[in-house]
Every structure is written in structure tokens, then in C-alpha cells.
Amino acid sequence: MSEFVAIAIDGPSGAGKSTIAKRLAATLGFVYVDTGAMYRTVGLATLRRGIKSEDTAAVIAALSDIDVSIAYVDGAQRVFLNGEDVSDQIRTPEVSMAASTTSAIPEVRKFLFETQQKLARENNVIMDGRDIGTVVLPNAKVKIFLSASVEDRARRRYDELKEKGMDVSFEDVLEDMKQRDYNDSHRDVAPLKPADDAVPVDTTGNTLEESVALLESIVKERL
Ligand code: DC
């Protein structure tokens, strides 16, 4: 049994997992682990090599010279691809889609699984993703499944991208979100689904503050 405590937050894109988990981690003094950033880094690596995400054999072959690591700078997680900090480059719509496709490949999941488990063996963690409560940390002390309507999630993602100065339309962001929801929930390995013992939380219509307060009370009650 690990002496460390793990909190798993799963759910679809744009439900607010990372923003809320980061805030909770700061309040509790836990290490925040954004596993989506790791999948995005693999997606970015394949795009940079000109590999099509659908070309499973080429993606698997590329893994042998991809190194994904994470480190904490001023308390914030940064993700590195072969030593280069790519934390900002992984936040584009192209990388989102490449991550969604390549994350369905079992070898890609296995590749990142070890790193994720090691972090939980060595730290108190709040880890967010799609399969944390079901596959990566099935013994997590608290599991939350965070969701919101697809329109609400697309609106938040659209606002974020606009804020970063990206030229995107709401319709495209909504379509991407629907496509990724479908991919993430229908893949054969570790599909997005709530763990049997996860607490379901729907953040539709909530402000960020309301969602943070709600999750904080759920977590504190269970720790
Ligand atoms: O959470 P995110 O949008 O940054 O995740 C990017 C992609 O990575 C998402 O489409 C699905 C995949 N992912 C996954 O398959 N398993 C995880 N634990 C986290 C993310």
C-alpha cells in the first residue's frame, strides 16, 4: 500500500478538470498531474515528424525516440518532449486532435502509464485525465467524474483559444469537441467512462468558483 494519497478526476474535454484540479492541488498541497498534457506531447511529437495520427505502426515506431517527462516550475506542471519545454505548443486544435487519435493506441497508453503510476507512488497527487479512476489509479482515495454539456465545454474552450489570440470559430470548436468526445468514449482501450465508485459532478452553468467550492467539499469530506 502506498503511503501517499491519490485523487482522480476524470471527464471529457473542457469540463474544467485541469483548472479545478490545479486549484485543489494548491489548497491541499498535492502535486497536480495533467495526464492530457502527456498525450498531447506524444501527439505533438508525431505531428512534428510528419506522421499521420491514423498510421498506428508509424506512431508506435516513433515512441522509441520520444521521451515525455514532467517537472514542476513554481508549482506549475511543465511538460517536456526530449528535454524541450512544449507546455505551450501542445495547446493547439491540431495537437488536441492528434492526441485524441494517438491516445487510442494501446502502446501509447502503456508508454505513459508507467510515468503516471510512478508519480502517484512518490507523491500525494491530484491526477486528471480520462482513465485515472478506472485504470491508472483504481485505488485512488477520491474519484470524481466531471462533466458539463458539450455546448458549455465548447464555449469555455473557444473563450480560452480566443484569449490566446487564436483565430477559431465557435462552430469548429464545437465540432472538434463532439468528435473528441466520440473518439475518447468509443476507443477499445481505457475509454472515457466513470469508475463505479466515482462521484459524478455536472458543472453546466456553474461559475469556476462554484465548481471549485463543490469539488473542494467533496474531496475534504472523503479524505
Ligand atoms: O485532457 P486533454 O484535452 O488535454 O487530453 C488530450 C487528449 O488525450 C484527449 O483527447 C484524450 C487523451 N487522454 C487520454 O486518452 N487519457 C488521459 N488520461 C488523458 C487524456
Word description of this protein:
By secondary structure, this protein is of the alpha/beta class. The chain has helices at residues 17-28, 35-48, 56-62, 93-102, 106-122, 132-136, 150-163, 170-186, 208-222, and strands at residues 6-10, 31-34, 68-73, 76-81, 84-85, 125-129, 142-147, 199-202. The strands form 2 sheets. It has a 5-stranded parallel beta sheet with strand order 2-6-1-7-8, sandwiched between helices. A 3-stranded antiparallel beta sheet has the order 3-4-5. A hairpin with a 2-residue loop joins strand 4 (76-81) and strand 5. Helix 2 (35-48) packs across helix 5 and helix 7 (150-163) packs across helix 8. Bound molecules: 2'-deoxycytidine-5'-monophosphate (DC).
Sum up the structure in keywords:
alpha/beta; 223 residues; five-stranded parallel sheet; binds 2'-deoxycytidine-5'-monophosphate; 9 helices; three-stranded antiparallel sheet; 8 strands
Heteromolecules bound:
2'-deoxycytidine-5'-monophosphate
Query: Given the structure, what is the number of helices?
Result: 9
End-to-end distance = 16 Å
The whole-angstrom Rg is 17 Å
Helices and strands: which structural class? alpha/beta
Tally of extended strands?
8
Order of helices and strands: EHEHHEEEHHEHEHHEH
Largest β-sheet summary = 5 strands, parallel
Give me the side-by-side strand order of the main sheet: 2-6-1-7-8
Query: Strand percentage, roughly?
Result: 15-25%
